[in-house]
Write a structure and sequence with these properties.
The protein is of the alpha/beta class. The chain has 8 helices and 12 strands.
Length: 231
Amino acid sequence: MKRIYLFGYGKDAKLISKELPRDQYRVTIIEMNERRYEESKADGNIDSILIDITDDEKLQELMIEEGSKIVALMDDSHLNLFLTLSLRNLYPDIPILVIADSLHTARKFELAGATDVIDLYEVSSFSLQSILKKPVATKLLDAFLGVKNEISFREYTIGKGSKLDNQMVNDIIFEDYGVMLIGLIDLELHEKFTFVGEGIDHELNGGDTIACIGKNEDLDRFERVVREEVG
């Protein structure tokens, strides 16, 4: 059984903790806030530990074993950065996953030694939860915990005359292609990245850019749909 050390028990961490199948993963929650530690216990997380994560000696006492995975999800990005630096120094061979809230922060985590950084642009907590509730996004996390590089992000520019040109987002069943739409860049919206929530009513046009998550093989097939003109 795979051992996961989940640092933090905020909204995003709670969701991830619930998504991980307990018959495959043994999840240990690490918290420094006593109230959230008690919440994790109340939610049925038997393996919960209350420690000061800013104390390297306490982190070393965790004795994180080889073959484990670490997910840093403290609400404070500065704490996540400090945690990544400390854990990388103490456990040089343990994979560390961090979710970043900006491109700038993502770069810092990479320099600090994070193995994988999921950069969701300026994603809100609600948007993050809506993503992680999707089956394909659950597989994204599982890709880090299990099979490396099976799941990834990809951006596509809608080809003029393609199957998606002039189509409403709500009318496109992305799941049929094995991918999930997470955001778009509309030329009419001054090329600003817009995170896609449920029920968005928007028309895609040639030249717009969409960002999707999926298996690499499905993303490859979907690229042909996005770019090729309808005959």
